Amino acid sequence: MIAYRCILVLKFLSVMGYAGGAAGAFLCDDPAARRRAVHRIASPSLLATWLSGYALLVLNGWPLFELWVAGALLLSLVGNAALVYCVSRERRSLSAFLGSALPVACVVVLMVVKPTWAQVRP
Hints:
Blueprint: H1 2-27, H2 31-60, H3 67-88, H4 94-113, H5 117-120
Helix pairs in contact: 1-2, 2-3, 3-4
C-alpha cells in the first residue's frame, strides 16, 4: 500500500511538472526559456507521468489498452505535440494554448470517469 501511495505522489508531482512546463511555454517572454520549459520540464514530466501511471496500472491489475488508458495516452501525446509545435513556431495565441490544454483537460476527465470498452460497445 505504501508503494501505491508513493507512486501516486510521484504521478501527481509529474503532472504538476507538466503543467508548470506548459504554463512556462506560454508565459515566458524569452523564446529560449519557452523551449526549455517544454523540452526540459514538460516533456520529461510527461514521461514520468506515463511511467508512474503504468506502475499504478500494474499494481491495480488494470489492462493497458482499456479505453480510458489508451485515450489518455493518445490525448497526452497530442497535447505535448501541440506544445512542441507552439514553441517551435513561436505561437502564443489563445487558440494555440487551447490546442495544447484541451487534450490534457480531456485526459483528466478520462482519468476520473474511467470509461471502458464494455461501456461503449453495445
